[in-house]
UniProtKB/TrEMBL annotation:
Keyword Glycoprotein in annotation: no
GO terms, molecular function: DNA binding
Short name of one Pfam family: Myb_DNA-binding
A GO CC term attached to the entry: nucleus
DNA-binding is among the record's keywords: yes
Alphabetized UniProt keyword annotations: DNA-binding, Nucleus, Repeat
Record domain HTH myb-type: where: 9-61, 62-116
CDD domains according to UniProt: SANT (cd00167)
Region (Disordered): 127-166
Full protein name: Uncharacterized protein
Family matches, as InterPro entries: Homeodomain-like_sf, Myb_dom, Myb_TF_plants, SANT/Myb
Subcellular localization: Nucleus
Length: 263
DNA sequence: AAGTGATACAACCGCTTCCTG
DNA sequence: GCAGGAAGCGGTTGTATCACT
């Protein structure tokens, strides 16, 4: 496939948009719609490439864009959606009306990552304490490493979430859609239950991490049965780098029911 | 006041996906 | 089914601004 020459080579302008250019783009799109982005700059009389026009419109000039700081609620939603979707910024943006993928991506890299780091370090401190309690209560406990138990209780909140990015390569959105049992819709109750799980309902014994079966049935695609048998057991020996940790994180939150196999 | 590092965010790059002939 | 063009997307970069020394 032959790539189109970049803006500079075509003698087109790059860099920040002027007020005048914005006005031209807005008035053109208001009159004619954007139609073909590639043809638009020529038709509108802009010395920009179509890609640049599209980006400017989508990320900045669209009338339905919500400007200004993100509210706490929005930030929390982004964090939660990121746990579910990884770095699929456009998918996250689709759940946040008025916010663009670019804006969300920026806010993630500048604010939320740090915020989350702070939170996760606090959480891991808590877990170290609780693990010590568990060990004391049962000296014959099965070998559950700190990282394993941490990921069992919460989703990944590592420094750069690079592992999440990798996961999408293993299980793509179309794969999810094609699975026989659709993923449950996420609503507020999901998160509050997940929070409740994190706070109170996890009960760890020497051989299992069991969350009451009555809370919610474990839900996962049936074609994952070889890895997640219907008895809702999580194979702690499975290789978490093979992409299944993505499901692993979600299902623990969704299903609230995990039993560790005997080691 | 000047210099420097950190931060925020707009814009770009290049790859992937989708659509059409 | 294939090729080519357009749009979409995520990662990265550039730059303005702020905070601190």
């Amino acid at each position: 496939m032959v790539r189109a020459p970049c803006c500079e080579k075509m003698g087109l302008k790059r860099g920040p948009w002027s007020l005048e250019e914005d006005q031209i783009l807005i008035s053109y799109i208001q009159k004619h719609g954007h139609g073909n982005w590639r043809a638009l700059p020529k038709l509108a009389g802009l010395l920009r490439c179509g890609k640049s026009c599209r980006l400017r419109w989508i990320n900045y000039l669209r009338p339905d864009i919500k400007r200004g700081n993100f509210t706490n609620e929005e930030e929390e939603n982004i964090i939660k959606l990121h746990e579910m979707l990884g770095n699929r910024w456009s998918a996250i943006a689709a759940k946040l009306p008025g916010r663009t993928d670019n804006e969300i991506k920026n806010v993630w890299h500048t604010h939320l990552k740090k915020k989350l780091n702070k939170t996760s370090s606090e959480l891991s401190n808590k877990r170290v304490i609780s693990k010590q309690k568990i060990k004391r209560s049962d000296s014959n406990s099965s070998t559950i490493t700190e990282s394993e138990s941490a990921s069992a209780c919460t989703t990944s909140s590592s420094d750069d979430f690079s592992s999440v990015g990798k996961r999408k390569d293993v299980i793509k959105s179309e794969d999810i859609e094609s699975m026989e049992e659709p993923m449950p819709e996420i609503d507020e109750s999901f998160w509050s239950e997940a929070a409740a799980l994190d706070e109170t309902s996890t009960h760890m014994t020497s051989s299992s991490l069991t969350i009451s079966n009555e809370i919610l049935p474990l839900q996962y695609p049936s074609n994952c049965g070889d890895i997640f048998p219907q008895e809702s057991k999580v194979d702690y020996n499975s290789n978490l780098d093979d992409g299944m940790d993505f499901w692993y994180d979600i299902f623990i939150r969704t299903g609230d029911q995990i039993e560790l196999p005997e080691f």
